[in-house]
Amino acid sequence: MTIDWWTLGLEAINVAVLVWLLQRFFWNPVSTMLDERRVVAARDLIDAAAKRADADKALAALNAERAGLQQEREAVLAKAAVEADDERVRRLERATEEIAALRAQSEASVAKEKADVHKALQYQAAALAVDIAARLLARIDTASIEAGFLDGLRKQIASLPPWQRQALAGQPLKFISASALTEDEQSDCRRMLDGALGSASDLAFETDPKLIAGFVLDTPNVVIGNSWRDDLDRIRSELTHE
Amino acid sequence: MKSPLSIDVLFHIGPAPITAPVLVTWAIMAFLAGGAWVATRRLSLQPSRFQAFLELIVQTVDDQIRDTMQAEPGPYRAFIGTLFVFIFVANWSELVPGIEPPTAHIETDAALALLVFLAVIYFGVRASGLKGYLKTFASPTPLMIPLNFVESLTRTFSLLVRLFGNVMSGVFVIGIVLSLAGLLVPIPLMALDLLTGAVQAYIFAVLAMVFIAGAISEGRPEKTSDERTTK
């Protein structure tokens, strides 16, 4: 067995060249690509971590903002609830006041209507009573009570102040009676007046059935009456509180 | 039957006889270098399936170097990886009809062992300096210098003999069986020879890593000491 030294040397050179060639065209490019990918992956991981940190910060900020919004919302809701409650109370008070005012106004109106009705009824009742009394009195024979009315008229004239009685003396007077007086009755009346006034008077006799019974002395300054009509009018005034 | 130990000179380039192993080695070089050039023209950060396969090869070699040599694979990747790939392809080149693996000839195996021997020295000196590398022969005592020197030669020789013996024997056996039996009988032996070839490529590469690692690891403490002194 012999060794071909040329072949040995050439093979050594061949393998050495192959080492260089593969280093140049295979091992270095592929390992460089692996390193680049490793670097890119590391950078991407760093970027991803940074982005994640940013995202976490943004999320925290968002959560804080959301919490703030929630608090603000709750505050706004609480404020709105308080305002609504105040407004409700205020409107309730206003409505209560309006209702009370309306009720008072209504009660006053009802009371006024009631008073008016009562007054009207009083008027009607008084008028009816006076009318009834007038009708009943109209059926009575008044001749027997004329003297009483004449005496009452004399007392009224006597109760006048002296200056007023003196002023009546000499003036034209109207002597009104419920029914026409006879000559005697007129003479009695004239005599009573002259006595009461202290002098003769210018007297004229008239008739007014509305008086029912009694007399009225009508002077330019004063009217002096003593009749059932006067009594009934006075009673009606008392009944109607006039 | 032709002896597997004989070598045919095909032609001469000047004074240099070009033999069949050299010619086949050139073809393998062209195939590997051309294939590598074509394969790595369009590398991208988003790998294709083929690029992923290439990266798997590189990553596997790197992992083997890290595990075996306990060192970063950068300086050793090209040498160790090329040794493995070349021996693997050379051993499997017998699949091509009429081609005899270059590693079945002792010259090719001796060349590979010689390169490993030189690489051990180169990486040892590179790691520890010439003085530091030479000091490794005196480890653990100067009495071990002759033994360590002989060991460095014999382990290189063992590389040569192991690879040559395995590949040559496979070719030799297949040739004998082929001359005795029919066409299909050697096929199981050829399959076994392919397996042997792959295993031998792996063993050769691993042993080369172990030898280089021994050279650079022996220099590491001294280098660390120097670094401390420098600081």
Distance between the termini of chain A: 172 Å
Based on Cα principal axes, name the global outline of chain A. rod-shaped
Largest interface: A-B, 33 and 48 residues
Contiguous uncertain segments of 5+ residues of chain A: none
Q: What share of residues of chain B is helical?
A: over 70%
Over all CA atoms, what is the radius of gyration of chain B?
21 Å
The order of strands across the largest sheet of chain B is 1-2
Oligomer: heterodimer
- The secondary-structure class of chain A comes to alpha+beta
Computed CA radius of gyration of chain A, to the nearest angstrom: 66 Å
Mean of pLDDT of chain B: 87
Can you walk through the features of this model?
The complex is a heterodimer of chains A (242) and B (231). Chain A has 242 residues and is α+β, with helices and mostly antiparallel strands. Chain A has two domains: 67-139; 143-239, 2-Layer Sandwich (Dihydrodipicolinate Reductase, domain 2). Chain A has five helices and four strands, in the order αααβαβββα. Chain A has helices at 5-138, 146-159, 162-168, 183-197, 228-239, and strands at 172-177, 202-207, 214-218, 223-227. A four-stranded mixed beta sheet of chain A has the order 2-1-3-4. In chain A, α4 (183-197) links the parallel β1 and β2. In chain A, α2 runs parallel beside α4 (183-197). By secondary structure, chain B is mainly alpha-helical. Chain B has one domain. Helices cover 74% and strands 4% of the residues of chain B. Chain B has six helices and two strands. Chain B has a two-stranded antiparallel ribbon with strand order 1-2. In chain B, α4 runs antiparallel to α5 (145-180). The termini of chain B are far apart. The interface between A and B is large, with 33 and 48 residues.
